[in-house]
Amino acid sequence: MEGPLSVVLRFSHPVEMIASVLVGMGFGFALERAGFGTARNLAAVFYGRDFRVLRVMFTAIVTAMVGVYFLDLAGPVPLSTLGILDTFPAAQAVGGFLVGAGFIVGGYCPGTSLVGAVSGKLDALLFIGGLLVGTLVYTLGADTFAPLADAGGRGRVLLHEWLRLPSGVVVFAVALLAVGAFWAVGRIERWVNRRAAPAGQGPQGVPAGAAAAERRAP
């Protein structure tokens, strides 16, 4: 875990490794509890039925962003100590497309496939097999892919610098974007599930009369 936590707290290497394992276990547990160990839940976002992926990940992004902003502002964790990958627009666009396509077809991303495998999901194990094959193909063909991978490098690019705005303004704007996205996907979910529900039943398969009575109950 090469990051500001180990630097600020001055972890020894063994403690750093133990902390990495504990953080990884906690992250995996959180993903499983959120339902990310099941491909059906993950793929549902592409059909408009269940946006838990967007909600959980957007919440995590905003939480981390706000935390990093205030830690940088207060001084304990300067933004300059964070390891941020260089920006390669072409390679990252192609990589994002391939990851998204794999997500749609396989129902997992690399991290959630590990959660699914630990939960005993056979499809997750098959997905990991495909992931390893893809990694091997890229490794063996690294020289062939190098022109794309190295094209248009822009170094370390931060959103607020790219937009030429104060970082606090961007943090606030992204938080507002998250709130708006949560509201919008909630409406999409209700509309899609209402259309998919059999006649006479509510969005979750509950008889419409029972659902209406439950809503009227004090």
Automatic annotation (TrEMBL):
Keywords: Membrane, Transmembrane, Transmembrane helix
Low complexity compositional bias, start-end: 197-212
Presence of keyword Chloroplast: no
Residue ranges, annotated region (Disordered): 197-218
Entry-linked InterPro entries: Sulf_transp_TsuA/YedE
TM region positions: 12-31, 52-71, 91-110, 122-142, 162-185
Protein name, UniProt field: Uncharacterized protein
Organism: Anaeromyxobacter dehalogenans (strain 2CP-C)
